[in-house]
């Protein structure tokens, strides 16, 4: 099921309760990577109760079986009141999205920089913790380690793009390009992320691409970026 088909199905199910269907994420930003990526959908409704959730259940299940995350559901008022706790996601959605149906509502959702700094610090450190914990579950088996890096890369790059907002107002829509610009503000070797992006795109690994060594470099580089961002946040607090 493509996003346009999902939008049509949501219109049929919800009728005049539906305010907007918005495609966001890699498919809207221009860095969609075939089967390695998915479609992210924001659905905004006039009301969101048990009746609406029940009506959406079967369609949401079919959407998930196609390999996509479940639609992100909000009322417009709820979306506006969530800007302080989801600043990273909402800033990215506002800058890279495509309205599949309904109103252009994102301009009315205000995100304040101080909320971004607070949430970003927490999310970066949580991601580092999760990388370490996830590595334990791989039992250091090369194929699992390789998949861990591929699966985690998008989250890391989203946070890097959010970090770039601390240094400049305009950020690239593509995550890889944002990472490269962040490297002009914070000193780190961007090549590890390019290697993992190549693996994600299905390119054959080179002779030097031992998953355990790559992960060691990956983890160390992520940690160094987090330390630099953390220092910047506290120095400008």
Can you put this structure into words, describing what you see?
- The protein is of the alpha+beta class and 237 residues long.
- It has 2 domains: 3-108, Beta Polymerase, domain 2; 113-235.
- 59% of the residues lie in helices and 10% in strands.
- It contains 10 helices and 4 strands, in the order αβαβαβααβααααα.
- The protein has helices at 3-14, 26-29, 50-65, 76-81, 87-95, 113-138, 142-164, 175-182, 191-200, 211-235; strands at 18-24, 40-45, 72-75, 97-102.
- A 4-stranded mixed beta sheet has the order 3-2-1-4.
- Helix 3 links the parallel strand 2 and strand 3 (72-75).
- It is globular and about 55 Å long.
What is the secondary structure topology, with strand pairs?
Blueprint: H1 3-14, E1 18-24, H2 26-29, E2 40-45, H3 50-65, E3 72-75, H4 76-81, H5 87-95, E4 97-102, H6 113-138, H7 142-164, H8 175-182, H9 191-200, H10 211-235
Parallel strand pairs: 2-3
Antiparallel strand pairs: 1-2, 1-4
Helix pairs in contact: 1-3, 6-7, 6-10, 7-8, 7-9, 7-10
What's the N-to-C terminus distance? 45 Å
Describe the global form. globular
Structural class assignment: alpha+beta
User: H/E element string?
Assistant: HEHEHEHHEHHHHH
From the alpha carbons, calculate the radius of gyration and give it in angstroms: 19 Å
Query: What share of residues are in beta strands?
Result: 5-15%
Most strands sheet: 4 strands, mixed
Instruction: Give unreliable regions as ranges.
Output: none
Mean pLDDT: 89
Order of neighbouring strands in the sheet with most strands: 3-2-1-4
Please bin the fraction of helical residues.
Answer: 55-70%
